[in-house]
User: What shape does this take?
Amino acid sequence: MVKNDFYQTLIKKLYKISGTNWYLSTCKSCNHFFLSPEPQATNCGSYSCNYETSKISEIDTNLRKNQSLLEISNLIATYFKTKGYVIEKPMEIIHAYKGKARLDSMKTTLFTVAGVQLIDKKVPKEPTYIPQPSVRLKWLKSYSDINPKKPYSTSFVNITTLQAIERIDDFYIQLQDWLELLNRFSLLNKIKLKIKETQIRWSEKRANGIFLKVNYHGVELGDIGLIFDFPFNKNYRSHLIDIGFGLERLGWIINGTRSYFDVIGPLLLSALKKYVVIDHVRTLTLIVGSNVSLRNTVHGKKIGKLVDHLVECGEMFFDFLPLVVYYYNFWKNFIYLPLKPTEIEYEIKREINRKINKRLLNKGFKKYLLQGMEDLPTYELVDRILKERNIHPNTMKNLIYKTLYRDNA
Ligand SMILES: [Zn+2]
Assistant: This one.
């Protein structure tokens, strides 16, 4: 099909912007084609193709910019604004959840996963820019999955540009904008573009697309997608440009910090390797702050997993409020959070109490169970059992210790 022309045009554009030749090679590890300024390159740069992202801070010390995520985000927004892009506000994090009438759509779009969700609302005929806070829980199986060497976390800002285009040529205009931006960050000659042809699914819609995965030494910074003949609605089909970069990953590489979490911060917590606390409280601040009760809602139950993890790894007595304030002050630059930090902290703490108490009551304390105890703060629960059930405080201590800590020892 258009493939060969596509690659040739791409290589020309890359030459024009970077001033060097780019070469099409095959990855020895995954067999995908990729483009790189190195003629002899044998690896596409994906994490799964044997890269050690732990060495990020040692690779390219020239890159060190010491810019915060917000500074980088503002810089990128200004850049696209200057280029004439329509700046769209991000969508609410709980997409399609307005009352009980739309249970069906809740299943497919539980959380806003990317800027591309704008296409459900409208056809973006102009080049459009959206910094979309996003939540992804699909990789999260256990708390040990939060790995500072693996560059993903459960929430991030998806820096997205979109456009519905009639002519493929318009794709190269937007591609050029992104490549120029990467060049401003001194990244262009250091990335590899892994080429993937794939069918995309969007609700009931299907279309074929070409995606360029932008890889920097094992970190997938973003996805440059061109989707062919996308059925926006019954009356309208066109090609779709869908380009998305992870702000946090970009920030990591631009700053060249030791860990991904150094950029997310607070730095002290990252230095103490409190990655689970950093990631989970950040995501909880976004979701609970969007006024999602952790109880009795589909969404709440789903992210209740994060609270489980906090309890599992012994972080349940952490002083959450300063952290909630810290992440609240970050998210509020992108999205309106109806809850105040103190309300968010209250909701997290309440759920933590419930999870701890549930563990206590399900295990050693079952025989001491009194009605309505599950919701009390743990210290009150313990207090009440001591008073009303006449057991020795040491027995109680042992039981608590066993229940909360033994499993993770
Ligand atoms: Zn590969």
In short: Confidence is low (pLDDT under 50) at residues 96-109.
